[in-house]
Design a protein that fits this description.
It is built from 7 helices and 12 strands. With 246 residues, the protein is of the alpha/beta class. The chain has 2 domains: 67 residues, Beta Barrel (Ribosomal Protein L25, Chain P); 154 residues, 3-Layer(aba) Sandwich (Alpha/beta knot), CATH 3.40.1280.10. Strands 6, 7, 8, 9, 10, 11 and 12 form a 7-stranded parallel beta sheet that branches. It has a 5-stranded mixed beta sheet with strand order 1-3-4-5-2.
Length: 246
């Protein structure tokens, strides 16, 4: 007996759209997404496309018409519900372009729920292009099969975040001067990982953070890690210890 080919094929393109999706919904893609489907992939009527909207899960659609500047899609069925997202935030000091793009991309792939830029005394980047960072998060979600996007927030000062912090959310502070092994302090429940700038936290900031009731200093091993590497390592440790990798 000849096996029935899997549908949709593994090669089916996958895109995030802001239009709320549902069976029978039709939508027109324009700009970069239309160019990708029509001119790069040479999509034609009847070809499948996987879509997600960060609300209702992932849906299967098919191309109804493909022009050079616009592609019309019709949603046919739901493939999966929106994923449950572990309640983990990443608080990070903005770093140089390129490295911060990588940080946002990998944090999204690893399953982070919220991305919160933090302004510290030694933060060297004072302006962030949040639209560009969101685009990197979307592209990462498209590639890794996420159906939920991380929320990306405006930068906030460290002092303001600590002042308004909900003590029910553990604040895992990656301290270059040392802390407890991750497995000893990570517990199920809402949590956030705090990663410092390229120059590290000042002594005053370190004292302020450690004095907070929700803060737990952690170590990420014997080597000094770049800020983006530290973020990825800490997220992976949390996901493997109390997150959804177990």
């Amino acid at each position: 007996m000849i096996a029935t080919p899997a549908w949709p094929p593994a090669s089916t393109p996958r895109l995030y759209v802001e239009t709320p999706l549902g069976e029978g919904v039709t939508l027109a893609l324009e700009g970069a997404q239309a160019n990708y489907l029509a001119n790069v992939l040479r999509a034609k009527p009847g070809d499948p496309v996987r879509l997600f909207d960060d609300r209702s899960g992932e849906w299967l659609a098919e191309v109804r018409a493909a022009g050079r500047r616009s592609v019309m899609l019709a949603v046919t069925s739901r493939l999966s519900e929106r994923e449950p997202v572990p309640d983990l935030w990443l608080l990070f000091a903005p770093i140089k372009k390129g490295r911060i793009d990588w940080l946002v991309e990998k944090a999204t792939e690893l399953g982070i729920a919220r991305l919160q830029p933090v302004i510290t005394a030694r933060t060297i980047v004072d302006r962030l292009n949040l639209d560009r960072l969101r685009a990197h998060a979307i592209e990462a979600a498209e590639q890794c099969d996420r159906t939920a996007l991380p929320t990306l927030h405006e930068p906030a000062k460290l002092t303001a975040l600590l002042r308004d912090w909900d003590e029910s959310r553990a604040l895992l502070f990656a301290d270059e001067q040392g802390g407890a092994p991750f497995a000893e302090v990570a517990m199920p429940g809402p949590a956030a990982i705090l990663i410092g700038p390229e120059g590290g936290f000042t002594d005053d900031e370190r004292v302020l953070i450690r004095a907070h009731p929700a803060a737990r200093a952690i170590t990420l091993g014997p080597r000094i890690l770049r800020a983006d590497t530290a973020a990825a390592a800490a997220i992976a440790l949390w996901m493997g210890t109390v997150g959804d990798w177990r």
